[in-house]
Write a structure and sequence with these properties.
- There is one protein chain.
- This protein is mainly alpha-helical.
- It has two domains: 1-68, no CATH class; 70-101.
- Helices cover 84% and strands 0% of the residues.
- The protein contains four helices and no strands.
- It has helices spanning 4-9, 16-67, 71-81, 84-99.
Length: 101
């Protein structure tokens, strides 16, 4: 990833080399995420189980305090994000990524 991102910044967007490098970056990110989810996070959960519960509770309480003053704004944003139009646009973007592999 550390090599792919700077390389992309120097490339023209409309070239096959850019597409190849971008797809390589996607593969690198997916590999990184899989490693974290299957190896690192389970290990951290085992070691930090009690601390995670406490931190989770603290984060929930903090979030509730932060959003208490703007429930209308949050409701509007959630309704937009969950609208069929927004979901179908997201699905199209996802299918674009999948179809290029």
């Amino acid at each position: 990833m550390r090599e792919s991102i700077p390389k992309l910044h120097t490339m023209a967007l409309d070239t096959s080399a850019y597409d190849d490098t971008f797809m390589q970056l996607i593969r690198e990110v997916i590999h990184h995420v899989v490693d974290e989810e299957t190896i690192l996070l389970p290990m951290a959960e085992d070691v930090l189980a009690a601390d995670l519960r406490k931190s989770g509770t603290q984060m929930k309480m903090r979030r509730l305090r932060l959003v208490a003053h703007c429930p209308t704004k949050i409701a509007v944003n959630q309704s937009i994000a969950l609208s069929p139009k927004c979901r179908s646009a997201s699905a199209r973007r996802s299918s674009d990524i999948v179809s290029t592999t």
